[in-house]
Amino acid sequence: MRNTSLYIFLAFFYFTNNLSIFTESAQPIASNNSTNFIKSSCRSTRYPTLCIKSLSSYATKIQQNETQLAQAAIQVTFNVAQSTTTFVSKLAKAKGIKPREFQAIKDCTNNMAGSLNQLSRSIVEMGRVAGQDLMRMDNVQTWISTALTAENTCLDGFSGDFMNGNIKVAVTRRVIYVSQITSNALALINRYAARHKAAATPS
Ligand SMILES: *[C@@H]1O[C@H](CO)[C@@H](O)[C@H](O)[C@H]1NC(C)=O
Ligand SMILES: *[C@@H]1O[C@H](CO)[C@@H](O)[C@H](O)[C@H]1NC(C)=O
Ligand SMILES: *[C@@H]1O[C@H](CO)[C@@H](O)[C@H](O)[C@H]1NC(C)=O
């Protein structure tokens, strides 16, 4: 009787001990999911918290696929740039707007439209890269960089003292936001290019 319970105890001890070893070694695999993939990829960006937040709704699509991540980063940037462009262009109709403010808003709307154009062709080009045409990565890098420059040019137009406080705050807050998202996308694209072009170049 005593012996039997001892054996049961020993068997139980042996089993649970092995089990705990099992779960420990299984943990890194269990946490290797798309959330952690996005987090670690975003570490290479200038605004990692914003990067993680803006890409998290694409987690299911991204999984742990670098190409999907790069595509999602450009798509997110395009979406934000589009709503920002709409917002800024509507401000041109604001009441009591001064001529210089009107001009700055017009210029910014043109810059943002240029940025949108660069981002939309980048989406198409990245689709071709995903189809294994890695040489087109140069275009994507150039165009997203041009989009970022256009956004910063808009911001320059609002740096003057002549600006009405409310309009200046409204525009700069939104354009800074889209420029940070664009900067993140550029970092992810550059990272993708560095990893994949090197692998595709015959040595
Ligand atoms: C991914 O793993 C982390 C733990 O490392 C967990 O907190 C998170 O909920 C997991 N996410 C998904 C989508 O499974
Ligand atoms: C986690 O995922 C990455 C790719 O996203 C892969 O390279 C790595 O081997 C995976 N690690 C484990 C422990 O499965
Ligand atoms: C990653 O996504 C790309 C683009 O959708 C696809 O062509 C590729 O097969 C995917 N890779 C893996 C390992 O699933």
From TrEMBL:
Molecular function GO terms recorded: enzyme inhibitor activity
Database matches in InterPro entries: Invertase/methylesterase_inhib, Pectinesterase_inhib_dom, PME_Inhibitor
All residue ranges annotated as the Pectinesterase inhibitor domain in the record: 33-188
Gene Ontology CC annotations of this record: apoplast
Main localization category: secreted
Record carries keyword Chaperone: no
Gene3D superfamilies documented for this protein: Invertase/pectin methylesterase inhibitor family protein
Signal peptide positions (record): 1-20
SUPFAM superfamilies the record matches: Plant invertase/pectin methylesterase inhibitor (SSF101148)
Protein location: Secreted, Extracellular space, Apoplast
UniProt keywords, alphabetically: Apoplast, Disulfide bond, Secreted, Signal
SMART domains: PMEI
Keyword Secreted: yes
Similarity section: Belongs to the PMEI family.
The protein's name: Pectinesterase inhibitor domain-containing protein
